Every structure is written in C-alpha cells, then in structure tokens.
Predict the 3D structure of the following.
Amino acid sequence: MKKLKLVMIGNGMAGVRTLEELLKLSDELYDITVFGAEPHANYNRILLSPVLAGEQTFEDIVLNDLNWYQGHGIKLLLNRKVVQIDRIKRRVIAEDGTEAEYDRLLIATGSTPFILPIPGNTLHGVIGYRDIADTRLMIDTARTHRHAVVIGGGLLGLEAANGLMLRGMHVTVVHNGEWLLERQLDNVSGRMLQTALEARGLHFRLREQTRALHDAGNGRVGSVEFSNGDLIPADLVVMAAGIRPATELAEKSGLPCHRGILVNDTMQTYDPRVYAIGECASHRGTAYGLVAPLFEQAKVCANHLARLGFATYKGSVTATKLKVTGIDLFSAGDFMGGEGTETITLSDPISGIYKKLVIKDDVLVGACLYGDTVDGGEYFQQIRENLDIAAIRDRLMFGRLQPNDDMQHHLREAS
Ligand SMILES: Cc1cc2nc3c(=O)[nH]c(=O)nc-3n(C[C@H](O)[C@H](O)[C@H](O)COP(=O)(O)OP(=O)(O)OC[C@H]3O[C@@H](n4cnc5c(N)ncnc54)[C@H](O)[C@@H]3O)c2cc1C
C-alpha cells in the first residue's frame, strides 16, 4: 500500500509526542516530514529552567535525538520555519523555499512570549523566555552584566529570576498583581513564597506597571521605568508576562482561530486534513500552557491519524508546580474558592506550611499547598475524578493517611 504523507509543522513537545503515540499504533501508514524552526531535535522545554539554574545541561534535556528520527524514517528539516500553508495544493512552504506535500497536516507551532508594547521593547537585551536560545543568552549575559529585571511574577518569571540569581545577577521581579503566582496561589501562600524568595536574594516590585525601557546609550537596555517615574537599572529584561498561541500561519491559510487554532474533540481543525495540537490549539475555548493536557491531546490526535477513530479529548484539569529547588508548592482546580464553596485551611507559619482545600457539594474542587506538597497528587486525582469526599472530609487535610489507625498515629506524632 502506498504510504500517505504526514507533514508536521513545529518540532516541539506536543507534536513529537503525537508522533511517538502514532508510531506505537502504526509505523506503516505515513511517510513523515517534520519542519522545525529551531536548530535542535526535540528537547524538554520544561527543563530549560534547571538548565538556566545550572542544574542540568542541554544534552540532559534532549528527548528525541537525531537517531530517533532516523530510526523511524522521519525526514527532519531543522532551522526551517514554515511560512505558508497552501491548503488547495496541500503543501507547506518554508522560509528557505523548501516545500512538502501532505495528505495530513499536523500544526504544532506552540506559543510565543507576549512582549509588552512599551517603548524600548526592541532594545538589545530585551527577550522572552521560550527556548534554549533564550536560555543561553541569559546564561551569557549573566557572565558579563549585573542587573536583570524580569517582568511577570508567574511560574516562568520566577523560574527565570531564580536561574539568573543563581548565575550571579542582581534580579528584580516586576509584577502588576497583588501577589506572586496569582493564578496558582492565594494571597497567603503567595506572600509566603515572596518571603522565601526574598530570603534567597530576589527583589520584588509588586503592583507596578512598566512604562518604558531605556537605552543605555549603546543600543542595549540600561534601565526600566515604572508608571510612577521610578527608574531601576537593567542590563537584561526578560518578559514573562504571558504567551500567545502561534496561530499566524494557520490564520493566513484561512483556518478559523480564536485564541488558538480551533479544534474539535479529535484535534481536527475546520479542514479535515489538518490537525492542530499543543499550545497553538484552542479546544472548547481553552488553549493549554502546560504539557500534561497536551500529552492527552497527543494520544487522541494519534488515534485519529492512525485511523482508529474512537478516542476523544474532553479537556483537562491542570495542576502546577514551581521548579525552584527547595520551594514546594502545588495547586490544582478552583483553589481560590467562591460562591457555594467551603474551604478547609491549615496554616503553620513557623514551619512554612500552608494548605487550603476547596470543597463544593462534597466534592474536592481545588487545592493549594505550600511548604508540604506530598499529598498534591492524591488531591489532584480526587479533583479530576470528582470523588465524593463526604465520608473522609474530617481526614481530608491529612492526605494519604486515610485509615483511622494511621490517622491516630499521625495525630500522636503531631502532638
Ligand atoms: C522555561 C519554561 C518552563 C516551563 N515549565 C513547565 C512546567 O514546569 N510544566 C509544564 O507543564 N509546562 C511547562 N512549560 C510549558 C511547556 O514547555 C509547553 O506547554 C510545551 O512545550 C508546549 O508544547 P508545544 O509542542 O505546543 O510547543 P513547543 O514545545 O513550544 O513547540 C513548538 C515548536 O514549533 C516551532 N515552530 C513554531 N512556528 C513554526 C513554524 N512556522 N515552522 C516550523 N516550526 C515552528 C517552535 O520553534 C517550537 O520548537 C514551560 C515552558 C517554558 C518555556
């Protein structure tokens, strides 16, 4: 049987995972061609933060080396950014003119960092934090310059700040919110985190808007100006103020997009020959920015590419962690709570532990843990599975220790 042609745009985590899943189901259906804008084989983007912090090397975080592609007969075109999808002729065209025809197309272009539209944002030394090139640039800058400013106090911003500090820079995190990690923590745990990070040497400017970035006089950024007129020195500015799904290419080809390329429950776009997966895809109104949901999507997409056609993706509940060694936090679901919810809270400021569980109609709907996260996985499972917790409600805060005997033991230990 003549093989079909599968072309994938974007050689990142979600796309390559889809290929892995597909190859498990069928390695004879397709001739596969992959276009990657980066000059590298697939690596674990999540682990860029440990690379920045000096805890791992790039070689440690490669997921699929060149031999993997070769071994599976995949044609890998690196450093080749696709600039056009011709859906009539069913082919894609890269910046350098390389073309490839497809029977099925998989768009897995990920996201791009949101760069604040402020004066000075194109100066040398102003970057986003997305790939190994950004990471290397930060490492190099830390060797030669002193002051770094990270805009954004979310997961990415804090991991960038921590890494730059460990590389010897004086780092200030600028955040326009009331507390850090507002999407992962409530105000109590957010402030505990800030205290812990300040003790390590990070500096914070909260409730602050950045008005402009100023030239040091040589085309490189030299300072950051806030809306109240304050100036602080900055040789490097890392924008970590959010990401935008990379949909430009799909939009140009006429595929419907709204905060992501619109896909159905099989990850298929409005063109039945074209699938989209990962951070670039919008499923039921959500474009996910974490890998766990993307890997679930990958399984479903592969199932359809392999012509099995029975899997469906219904959306995901997500959980997050911060990858700063020595700081444990976990949150999942509706951890803020609201109307119709009840919360159980445990707070021990002396040992730096805070736990909040949010319950609605006898179901755990959210959890926020700081300082002790061992039970995070357990809570996450309960949230995902909508388990009725009425019978274990009084013991819920003690996580894994469900049987009464263990509970007695735990209470004895605690007293
Ligand atoms: C520093 C950092 C830390 C993170 N930490 C976590 C974490 O702890 N937990 C977590 O769950 N998630 C984390 N994430 C997010 C996670 O990495 C992403 O959710 C995941 O990588 C998304 O996969 P993707 O395949 O959609 O996009 P990507 O992995 O970004 O892959 C997209 C690829 O497509 C390429 N591309 C784009 N346009 C084109 C084009 N036109 N032609 C060819 N190629 C193109 C891009 O260059 C890129 O290589 C982190 C991200 C970063 C940057």
